[in-house]
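Working notes for the structural subgroup meeting. M.R. asked for a predicted model of this chain before we commit to crystallization trials. I am recording the input and output together here so anyone reviewing the notebook later can reproduce the run.

Input as submitted:
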Amino acid sequence: MAEATKVQTIDDVKDPVQQKSTDLNKPQMPLIIGGLIVGAILLVYLIATQGSVQSLLLVIGLLLGYTLFHARFGFTSAFRRLASVGNGKALRSHMLMLAVAVTLFAPILAFGYSFFGDGVSGYVSPVGVSLLVGAFMFGVGMQLGGGCASGTLYAVGGGRSVMFITLLFFIVGATVGAYHLPFWTEDLPAFEPVSLATSTGFGYSGAWLLSIVLFGLITWITLVVEKKKRPPKMAAKPSATGWKRIFRGSWPLFAAAIVLALLNALTLMTRGTPWGITSAFALWGSKVAQVFGVDVASWGYWQGNAAALDASIFADSTTVLNFGVILGAFLASAAGGLFKFSKVTGKNATASVIGGLLMGYGARLAFGCNIGAYFGGIASFSLHGYIWGIMALAGTFIALYLRPMFGLSVPKPKDSFC
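Returned structure, recorded in token form:
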């Protein structure tokens, strides 16, 4: 049987950065210089006012954003490709990322390794109605909003205009979710948090081995699905060659997976908890609500942490990481000559509003997003991370039927095979 002379590809470049050519443009030097100046000013400010932890986290966040953009490392698109056409390449990169992460997290959590001696703890959360509903909502929302939590940040940094709308309503949804959270967590059923390491008797070595087996099983399943469905390949991305590729992309998914896992481990050892994103959105929205006279401090969500409402946002480590991700993505896009504001239409703006609200609200209910719950949870050996992934994938299947209503594309299988 002869092979096809042309192979259909999934347009990976458009998600989340609009760029059709596989050739990079010239570096946008004014933007690069401006970004470096902003980064330097922010770094000096953090050193002077917040100390070494926040300063280091800004640098880590910048590297996270740079990595995410250069690899177009997506969670939303990975779930969508698997659900729509059976392409599991991106999901396999998730498994590599998680395998490296658990390998690094296991000794860090077991022995309490920390740069600043304050101890470490992973993200281990309950499994209940709140998690199931929240992760499902997030799965639908990220497919409508055009990106997950990390995808939203790095797409904003890359200049994708509609993602500013997604981010705004992500913040709104997270704030409303914080207000409603006591109902979901206190009035509805849930099991106690389950750690594969500490709740099962496996210990961290046994939990690590079990995790690796699970990642291998998921990888094998994606290969079986691909063999059956023979999906289109992922499209080529704009890329430099040689050593310039480090600075101007694009990076292979497997390389980005390893770098993201390393940076998450550095985050754990720096601030004592893994990488997270959406708790900062709830903080930002709550602070704005305070300005308008809302008694945010009385919410159950803020009990025990009301001091954060009065402190500077730069005292919040997640906020600093988020700013770093945006700035890192901005520098990466400018280095590739790709920064450009994109067109906003009524349909994609509406989808962004709905998607942002669903993601923000769902993230609060599910104890995190694709980073805090899925990446951080699984890396911390928490059962809730796996449940989050399953429910978000279920939400993705539903969203495939909703995306065309807003003019959003859905990957299609090959029309024919030779």
